[in-house]
Specification:
2 domains; 8-stranded antiparallel beta barrel; alpha+beta; 3-stranded antiparallel β-sheet; 12 strands
C-alpha cells in the first residue's frame, strides 16, 4: 500500500511539471505550432513533408541583425546605423525589450541630450561630432548632435544624410520627447 501511495504522489507531482515543459519537434508536428530555438529563430514543421524551416523570430531580431535603429520625434523618423562596439550592442539589447522614450533637452545650441535610465558600457575616445552623430555620454545619457563638438565620447551610431537644419526641424530648439526603437 505504501508503494502505491508513493507512486501516486510522484505521478501527481510529475504530470504538472511535464505539462509545463517546452515543446519538442514531435509535439510541434502534431500541433502544427512553431518551436523557438535557443538562437531565437523559429522552426516550423511543414504539413506536406514534415521538414523544418527557419525564419526570423521577430522584427526586433531582424533589426538587431540589421544594425540599425529608428529615432522618432513627432511625425519624423530617422534611421541610424549603429556603431560596432559593446555600447551599441548593449543599447540594441535594451531596445530589443521595447522602444525607449527619452525626454531630451537642448544643450549649448549643438545637441539634444537625455537620460537612458540605466548605465551602458563605455568606449570613450577623443572624437569630433557632426550633424547626426549619436553619442553615449557618461555611460547613461544619449546625445544627438546637430552641430560639431570634440570631446571624449562613446560613439553609438550615426543618422546618415542629415544636416543640422534637418535635425532642428524635427527636434525643435527646446525640449523634445524622442523614441528610440529597433
Amino acid at each position: 500500500m505504501r508503494k502505491f501511495v508513493a507512486s501516486l504522489i510522484i505521478t501527481v507531482m510529475l504530470v504538472p511539471l511535464t505539462a509545463c515543459g517546452s515543446k519538442t519537434a514531435k509535439d510541434a508536428e502534431t500541433a502544427k505550432e512553431p518551436i523557438v530555438t535557443e538562437s531565437g529563430t523559429v522552426s516550423s514543421v511543414t504539413e506536406e513533408n514534415g521538414t523544418e524551416s527557419e525564419e526570423a523570430g521577430s522584427e526586433n531580431t531582424e533589426a538587431m541583425e540589421d544594425n540599425t535603429m529608428k529615432i522618432t520625434a513627432g511625425d519624423t523618423t530617422f534611421t541610424a546605423t549603429l556603431a560596432d562596439n559593446s555600447s551599441a550592442e548593449a543599447l540594441k539589447e535594451l531596445l530589443a525589450e521595447g522602444p525607449l522614450t527619452i525626454n531630451m533637452s537642448d544643450y549649448a545650441g549643438m545637441e539634444k541630450v537625455g537620460p537612458i535610465g540605466k548605465d551602458l558600457p563605455r568606449n570613450d575616445e577623443q572624437i569630433s561630432t557632426g550633424a547626426g552623430d549619436i553619442i553615449l555620454y557618461q555611460g547613461n545619457s544619449l546625445v544627438i548632435y546637430y552641430a560639431t563638438n570634440s570631446w571624449n565620447f562613446t560613439r553609438i551610431g550615426k543618422i546618415e544624410g542629415v544636416t543640422g537644419e534637418d535635425l532642428l526641424d524635427a527636434f525643435g530648439s527646446g525640449d523634445v520627447t524622442v523614441m528610440f526603437s529597433l
